Amino acid sequence: MRDALVSGLLAGYGVAIPVGAIAVLIIGLSARTSLRVGTGAALGVATADGIYAAVAVAAGTAVAGLIRPIATPMRLVAAVVLLLIAIRTALTAWRHYRDPARAVSAPALRTAPRAYAGLLGLTLLNPTTVIYFSALVLGQKSNGIATGPGAAAVFVLAALFASASWQLVLATGGSALGHTLAQDRGRLVTALVSAAVITVLAVRTLVG
Fold first, then answer.
1. Which residues contact 15 (CB under 8 A, 6 or more apart)?
2. Among 156, 208, 174, 149, which residue's Cα sits nearest to residue 49?
3. Closest CA to 1 of 134, 153, 162, 160
4. Quick check: 185 and 59 in contact, CB under 8 A?
């Protein structure tokens, strides 16, 4: 059980800590909206990681084999969604900055439930996550680590906890950044930088 716990924690942090478009999106959402929205987004990402960890434990390499043929289309969809989010983020921030009194359309991820659902769906579009967990599970089996139902549950819960704890750190950091840049100009800069970074990462995802 201890081996499964340690493996799950390492797996969860391993997939969560590398900074990508999702991390930037969580930070940006928290900075521009609230910690509550950022928390919803963070938990959506962690839920997706937990789902993929559970799928990998249940089906292992079989699922990875099924995912690989559609990995490229999934990656393309994720890149397009990220580009649309980046464009909307920049346009909404610019319109609000130019005319704070003007009613602008609220960001699609403005509430915690929407942020949760949006980031859950977006993270599930990342096929490398399930392949990553599948490889780790296969490695556990080859190394003789216990992989019974109890150990499998501990592995999944540990991975879920690790991912959630890191994503919440990002959300909290974004919220602190938002309080620091509370003025209209600061929020505009935050939104434009976030949109630019997401665009770059989306293009990188698009080109593989």
1. 49, 129, 132, 133, 159, 163
2. 156
3. 153
4. no
The per-type count for the chain, helices as H runs and strands as E runs, is: 9, 0
Average pLDDT, the chain: 77
**How is the chain split among helix, strand and coil, in percent rounded to 5?**
85, 0, 15
What would the pLDDT profile of 26-45 be if each residue is shown by its tens digit?
Answer: 988 888 888 999 999 999 99
Look at the chain and count its residues.
208
Which CA distances in Å does 102 have to 4, 32, 86, 92? 54, 17, 21, 11
Instruction: Please report where in the chains the tokens 């890191």 appear, as a residue.
Output: 166
Q: Which residue has the tokens 């096929």?
A: 127
Domain-wise residue ranges, the chain: 2-206
Q: What percent of the chain has pLDDT over 90?
A: 18
Q: How far apart are CA 189 and CA 150, in angstroms?
A: 48
b/e per residue 112-142 (b: at least 16 CB within 10 A): bebbbbbbbebbbbbbebbbbbbebbeebee
Cα 137 to its chain centre, rounded Å, is 21
Residue 34 tokens, joined: 């609230």
CA dihedral for 154, 159, 163, 165, sign (positive or negative) = positive
- Between CA 15 and CA 173 the distance in angstroms is 19
Provide the pLDDT for residue 182. 57
